[in-house]
Amino acid sequence: MCAITIIHNGYSFMNNGEMFANCTCTLIKGTHNIIIDTMTAWDSEVILRGLRKENIHPDQIDYVVSTHGHSDHIGNNNLFLKATHIVGFSISHKDKFYIHPFENGEEYIINDYVKVIPTPGHTLSDVTVLVTSEDRKVHAIAGICCCLIVHQDGSENPVLQRKNRLMIANMANWIIPGHGPMFKVTPEIRESLNRQASIDINK
Description:
Residues 22-179 form the Metallo-beta-lactamase domain. The protein is α+β, with helices and mostly antiparallel strands.
């Protein structure tokens, strides 16, 4: 059984021609304690305060997952020195790196409730964390893959990003995006993404 706590809701906006962004930081407590996306390097106290509220010490975190390697998603990974780190397609502990074929579409199983799947698009090594509850509801903690889910945003491969957005929307009941509050996946969202996928196929 897993409990999901959002430590910080992410955001992304333009103001006077300048971009401001920070990611959502999420804690999963259960068989393994997992923190997903550790914000910017200036946000350590935000994370530590959130962990204290959950009676979790950084040394009790088993996995750190950074959904991709941008600076607002990896800024406090060094708080968790006993954890295994997954940064995009890279898995490591200290100086030991583990080979896992994310690039072949293979998921990484953490436990019976949590797995990490490849969802490239925004970067070519993006991942998404899927958490399944006992009632079989699925939460997708999706980094950038499903940020602004029906709109275009910065992406190394927009077509692939839209494809993976649709895949996640078809798998999940709820999405925790990288830059915004959690939302329920509605039939309207799935229909919109299916329409966009059809446009991509017919181009």
